[in-house]
Amino acid sequence: MSVVSLPLRLVCSVVCLLLAAYSTLLAYTNYLFCQGTPGALTEAIRLEPYNSKYLSALAALSPRRSPELLQRAVSLNPYDAQSWIHLGRNAEINRHDPVLAERYYLRAAAIDRMYLPSWTLANFYFRQQNRDKLFEWARRALTVTPYDATPLFEALWFMSPDQDRIAAAMPDRDQVLLQYASFLSQTNRLPLVNPVFDKAISLSPTGVPLSETHPGVPLPSPAAAILDRFLQAGSVEPALHLWRRLTAAHWLLRYTTPSPTRPLTNGAFQLPLLEHGFDWSAPPVAGVTFDQFPDLGQIRFTFSGTQPEACPLLEQYIPLQPGRRYRLVWTAAMERIAPASGVTWRIDSFQNGSALPIPTGLTSPDLTSAPDAEAFWEFQAPDSSVSGTEPRTQASGEHLDPKPRLFLITLEYSRPIGKIRIEGALSLRNVSLTAL
Known about the structure:
Blueprint: H1 5-35, H2 38-47, H3 52-61, H4 66-76, H5 81-94, H6 98-111, H7 115-127, H8 131-144, H9 150-159, H10 163-168, H11 174-186, H12 193-202, H13 221-232, H14 236-248, E1 288-293, E2 298-303, E3 310-320, E4 325-335, E5 343-349, E6 358-363, E7 373-380, E8 405-414, E9 424-435
Antiparallel strand pairs: 1-2, 2-9, 3-8, 4-7, 4-9, 5-6, 5-8
Helix pairs in contact: 1-2, 2-3, 3-4, 4-5, 5-6, 6-7, 7-8, 11-12, 11-13, 12-14, 13-14
């Protein structure tokens, strides 16, 4: 062994021991930090006084010492954006010094260009009633936010109900635009929804954006909720516009757009029921089991005999031209169900602003009267501007209103007087509705 190698090995051994000791110290202080108590954090700071993270954590638990601890934290790490934000809150809330608070908040935003500093400044300027600064920082926050932006939308509308200015503050992000369109629909600003949704669709014209892709869901949830909101308000033309844009941009695949001449969607039952918009909805009914067989183009209702005496089985919103005659065609098959058992189609109407359908008195013959064969029912769409249940009689050559009105077609069961509740199965296929 050489004379030089022995001291070198000793030095290496000492260095390794020191590194091991320091690693142990770091692990112990991190353990104390994870305890999250004032005593543990104080001990962690004593052992590792140059860690700004420990100082910030202790400041959150020690309001009286918070300014001093935060100042020490930012002096050790000037890039600690959260500590600058906490200093700003202390200056604004405890010291009532908005000028100093703004300086701290802006320092945090200069360090960190992500969501939290921008969101903090937007809230600060909202509290200060500074409209221009609020819009500036709200837009910055919306540009990067990964969260629900509804609080920002509410702040902008509260501060300045200027729809054009607020629309200009929206970034070109499909996720934010979808959230904003949903916010507008939920706050009854329905006329403003479609331009926002159109812009969101234009950002992804060939398919559903990644932010809204969910396996097994054929329609993005914001679009489904907005469509339902339009229809519940009786706004048929905005709902048709949105449905048309969704199908054209392939956000809604394989579904056709209804029209006053062919108002029914998915009458072959080969596509999954969306339960939203202009597609079928099968309300859950106790004692009734619903099944769909897309390969066969068929749906099936199985009645246990314990179902309610009257219940809806299938529903769809449809646009009809008032005063025009229509033909509804279907094929039904029965198992263990006697004729005239109380299964019929019904047409109800909606008016703008009406939350509930208005009865029209239009009811088809009983489906169970002619099973296993194609059946049809002809009716005239009533003028929904006329109150009452009687449809308007169309005279020869009478001018029809070209604008469609919103109606609801319902397949319902109602126990006839003197009969027991049905028990068995009803299958339905090849449903179509066309204008004559």
